[in-house]
Design a protein that fits this description.
This protein is an alpha+beta fold. The protein has a domain at 1-112: Rossmann fold (3-Layer(aba) Sandwich). Helix content is 31%, strand content 23%. Strands 8, 9, 10, 11, 12 and 13 form a 6-stranded antiparallel beta sheet that branches. The chain has a 4-stranded parallel beta sheet with strand order 3-2-1-4. Helix 2 crosses helix 12. It is globular and about 60 Å long. It starts with a helix and ends with a helix. The model has no long low-confidence stretch (mean pLDDT 95). It binds adenosine-5'-triphosphate. The site of adenosine-5'-triphosphate has 22 residues, from strand 5, strand 7, strand 10, strand 11 and strand 12.
């Protein structure tokens, strides 16, 4: 990982009155650029090959300038040029994936958030230590496939967006579907309804829902649309489908808006709070947007099956606010909240607390 001293040196050389928000043109970039625009911060869209035409269809989400590279892997070679533009990188899921986690960790550019979180998020065993250590309840992990005694979901390591995951009802089913060349984790398949909760943690905010340091917000909730599992039942039962060679898949195709029963909100805030407090204890704290991906059971228990520690694409629903964000500031998006945070940290001379 790039030394924090090196990032401080680069940041010290920046003109703090002319910071620019830079991100890769994908995922939640329209929202990030739009949010920065609303806060009066100029933006840089990093694109491969040529400037993507589709931004012309969405002028308020278009970056002020494009920075074109031949391949995402070339971004680390262009850091000097980007630093001369006072670029602060906003990571999102596709940014980290296209660049590769190691390249991302080493990139010599001021980056919003704590890079130490990467190792904790991407390793399923470590994220379990973190979340269970925070007192959150997770789906039971079944270490020995011979002990599968309930429906399970089998997750391959490094598989992004649920690709290749499968459901097994028993050990025989598991053996039939397993790809032995890949590392996997077996998790209890939790029956309930899925909620992907979008939080925002600021270590520098002084008001609101206070934590030991800073404050926590909850800006929205979505549910992912996943093909083909979400619509498979229209054709028949999973068993019937498997008999004709169709397997359920969990590939994210889009997102839909959700609200929770209001009585569950105190629990949701508490879960976010504990996750942040534990992160402070384990690795100095995560910073900014994060998402707890949960199944809520008919006993109204939250089972958290994953954490994403940066802006998630589900927040794209709420570019003009959400039923929760509107109670913080009407029309607030996560993209705008990020821009506000950078502006506020620059003003308070606290950029070092939110950028690594
Ligand atoms: P991403 O990184 O895009 O969040 P991923 O590849 O890490 O995805 P998960 O988010 O862990 O995968 O799971 C993909 C989908 O599988 C979930 O959105 C959810 O629909 C389903 N799923 C995951 N774990 C469980 C579980 N324990 N019980 C029921 N469904 C689950």
């Amino acid at each position: 990982m790039v030394e924090s001293k090196r990032i401080s040196e680069i940041l010290n050389s920046y003109d703090k009155k002319n910071l620019r928000i830079a991100t890769v043109c994908s995922h939640s970039s329209l929202q990030i650029f739009n949010g920065a625009r609303r806060e009066g911060i100029k933006t840089i869209g990093i694109a491969v090959g040529k400037p993507p035409k589709f931004y012309d269809a969405f002028p308020l989400g278009k970056p002020d300038e494009f920075f074109v590279v031949d391949s995402y892997k070339d971004i680390p070679k262009c850091t000097k040029e980007l630093a001369e533009k006072n670029a602060v990188i906003i990571p999102h899921g596709s940014f980290v994936e296209y660049l590769g986690a190691d390249n991302f960790a080493n990139i010599e550019l001021p980056t919003y958030g704590n890079r130490n979180v990467l190792g904790w998020e991407s390793d399923r065993a470590k994220s379990r230590i973190w979340l269970e250590g925070a007192g959150l309840s997770m789906p039971t992990e079944i270490k020995d496939p011979r002990k599968i005694d309930r429906p399970v979901i089998v997750k391959y390591h490094g598989a992004k967006g649920g690709r290749g995951f499968f459901i097994a009802k028993n050990n025989e089913d598991f053996e039939k579907h397993l790809d032995r060349d890949q590392k996997y984790t077996i998790q209890e398949f939790v029956l309930g309804t899925r909620y992907y909760v979008h939080y925002f943690y600021s270590p520098i905010q002084k008001n609101g829902y206070k934590l030991s340091k800073g404050a926590l917000q909850m800006l929205g909730i979505d549910r992912r649309d996943e093909a083909n599992i979400d619509e498979a039942h229209r054709l028949g039962s999973i068993e019937e489908l498997e008999n004709i060679g169709i397997k359920p898949t969990f590939v994210v195709t889009g997102n839909g808006p959700m609200v929770l029963r209001e009585s569950l909100l105190p629990k949701v805030m508490e879960m976010g709070e504990r996750t942040v407090e534990k992160s402070i204890e384990l690795f100095g704290g995560m910073v900014g947007p994060f998402c707890l991906e949960c199944v809520v059971t008919d006993k109204l228990e939250f089972k958290v099956f994953e954490i994403s520690t940066r802006i998630v694409a589900g927040t794209n629903l709420y570019i003009s606010g959400s039923p929760y964000a509107d109670l913080v500031q009407p029309g607030l998006s996560t993209g705008q909240r990020i821009a506000q945070e950078i502006k506020s940290a620059a003003k308070q001379k606290k950029l070092g607390e939110i950028i690594t």
